Amino acid sequence: MAQRQTQQVHIPVRLVTFVALIGLVMLGCDASTATSDEATASPEPATAETTSQETASQETAAPTTADFRLPDLDGNSVGPPDFAGKVVVAEFWATWCAPCRVQAKMLDKLFHEVDPDDVQFLAINVGESAAKISPYLEKTPFPYPVLLDEGDQLMERYRLIGLPTILVVDRAGEITYSHVGLVDSGTLRLELIKAGMTVK
Hints:
Layout: H1 2-39, H2 48-59, E1 70-71, E2 77-78, E3 87-93, H3 98-111, E4 119-126, H4 130-139, E5 146-149, H5 153-157, E6 165-169, E7 175-180, H6 185-194
Parallel strand pairs: 3-4, 4-5
Antiparallel strand pairs: 1-2, 3-6, 6-7
């Protein structure tokens, strides 16, 4: 009889605990539902403040024209505008960037396959001085101009976020392709064709 009474006492306690847990779960669902309802509520009309914020965002968007010039290793100011009428390929790189070395090898191969009168390659070093990169270039020279973005100004202006980065510029100076990370030769060749490279 004692055991039977103990079992009768414990059964209601378990039921109460179970009901309490169900209640907590239901409260959580209610909270998420309220959040969902708030999220799906119709947006408020645009105010002058939100409009000005959108305008400011548009004003700070990355340029679509490659109108920049940078110093080369001899101190001359060089950039895509100096190669008007050509398709331009610009690789942003640094000596410490291992993937940049892989990309440079692929670009070197492509450089020797295309017409130099049709396509111009540029190697834009980021964040390093001429003195810093000179030993590197003695061992692994580029067959095309090396430019210096020593203060990262161009990276910031064009909202570039990593290395290597490839830009393709068409004959009119418009950026038609931008990619962060490695680009294989086949993909890059197609982008050059899209930008106006002559296919032979």
